[in-house]
Amino acid sequence: MRISIDGDLCIGAGQCALTSPDVFTQDDDGFGTVVPGQDGGGGPLVREAARACPVRAISVEG
Questions:
Q1: CA distance 8 to 20
Q2: ∠ Cα 28 33 36 (to 5°)
């Protein structure tokens, strides 16, 4: 599974970090980021976090 966040789209709503905190976090400016080492993993909550993103900035492939 490949997980990425489009930094140009992210508005920092934080739904990803709330839904799947093992995979997503927020940077110092409040924008979503993938936890280092987690960009190729994740579980069912990763897809739920992608669906919860209000601007669809999260991409999950695989």
A1: 21
A2: 105
